[in-house]
Design goal:
10 strands, 3-stranded mixed β-sheet, alpha/beta, 389 residues
Length: 389
């Protein structure tokens, strides 16, 4: 497609990001969050009709899908964002079961349905809570799910050996894991029943959350050591989308302690430099998370009142967000541009700590024309003057 603006060069984009990180921004930077579902669930980008089953279990197809996604980021997304267009030094691959890994580790079964992302079915009821609390997860490297993924990582190493694409080699990375949060994991394992437990017996629900967190800490540290890395990461970032389903006081009393435990035990990142991803209507928790956990970077979804959030959190907190993904998928380019302009004029730019993106994780088949409309609006209206920030 023809873009209605001159696309900045990679050097200009690099300078933009450096200025942003140095707290001297010249313009709001724009990025897009996506993953391989963007390839797998779009027939135009997946004429082979590869499936998530191929991606998760077939090392050769996994590598092909990963390469196609990484190449698409550089060739298409780079034209509608501040992402680089130059090809990387190498293509990367590593085991990936999408956002099911926490549930699978604790006993859930992977489900793959046509036209959908993988998911894990709840595998426990409220009658199983005491049994779950008594289960032994003390040897994470012997966990069936972990053994399977380590085995797949070894297959990827063999499949990547000597393979190239566009003259660039493929590098397989060791299997490590993050954490999608204790409440999100509990909801995946127990379904909506867990929120009944949280209401009826909050101390026991809190024990479940702490148990999940401690066992994930044990798991993630073991995988880092196996990969030859320090068992405390510097990233300082995790998620817990399901806190959008609870009130502030319930969060503060029964979930926040597990969040604090994970930040303190997993990361070397100091208080005040931590980050979190929270989709959905979770902004009522952000001030508590900032004050109690030292999180100064929030990756948001929707709905978000960006201006109100900036006023509540202040100019020093980084906020990433933008038009909701349903709008970007289905609206017209002028509608996408109008919503972007509304956000930029909301006050969110105050302090120079705003990253424009989708809210959150682009849907497959999102039109490039809509993404271009957002980028053009950012280029025209996302600039700072000397007095702003």
């Amino acid at each position: 497609m023809q873009f209605p603006y001159p696309v900045p060069t990679d050097a200009e984009k690099d300078s933009l990001w450096k200025a942003y990180r140095a707290r001297n921004p010249v313009r709001v930077p724009l990025r897009w969050n996506a993953n391989v579902r963007h390839i797998l669930l779009d027939p135009a980008l997946n004429p082979e009709n590869w499936t998530f089953h191929d991606y998760i279990f077939d090392p050769d197809r996994h590598i092909s899908i990963r390469i196609r996604f990484q190449e698409y980021l550089r060739t298409a997304f780079s034209q509608v964002s501040d992402m680089p267009s130059a090809l990387p030094d190498h293509w990367t691959c590593a085991p990936d079961v999408q956002n099911t890994y926490d549930a699978l580790y604790f006993g859930a079964r992977l489900q793959i349905k046509p036209g959908q992302v993988p998911f894990a079915e709840p595998c426990y009821t409220l009658e199983d809570v005491d049994r779950f609390l008594a289960m032994d997860f003390s040897n994470p490297l012997n966990n069936p799910f972990i053994r399977e993924q380590i085995g797949f990582a070894e297959k990827l190493v063999r499949a990547a050996r000597g393979r190239t694409h566009l003259g660039l080699p493929v590098q397989a990375y060791p299997f490590t894991l993050g954490f999608d949060g204790p409440l999100t994991a509990a909801a995946a394992l127990f379904g909506t029943d867990f929120f009944l437990l949280l209401g009826d017996d909050p101390p026991k629900a809190s024990r479940v959350l702490e148990t999940i967190t401690r066992e994930v800490l044990r798991r993630n540290k073991a995988l880092l050591r196996l990969a030859g890395k320090p068992d405390r990461s510097s990233s300082g970032f995790f998620a817990d989308d399901s806190i959008q389903l609870i009130g502030v006081e319930t969060y503060r009393q029964y979930v926040l302690p597990s969040h604090r435990l994970y930040y303190e035990e997993m990361f070397s990142t100091p208080f005040g430099q931590r980050g979190i991803h929270l989709c959905g209507d979770a902004t009522r928790h952000f001030k508590t998370i900032r004050d109690e956990l030292g999180v100064f970077s929030f990756d948001t979804g929707f709905p978000v009142d960006h201006g109100a959030l900036r006023r509540e959190l202040g100019p020093d907190v980084e906020i990433s967000g933008g038009p909701p993904v349903p709008l970007l998928l289905s609206a017209s380019p002028p509608e996408c541009a109008a919503d972007t302009l509304r956000i930029l004029r909301s006050g969110i730019m105050e302090g120079g700590r705003f990253i424009l993106q989708e809210g959150n994780n682009l849907s497959p088949k999102t039109p490039l024309e809509n993404m271009a409309a957002v980028y053009q609006t950012c280029l025209e209206h996302g600039r700072y003057t000397r007095n702003n920030p």
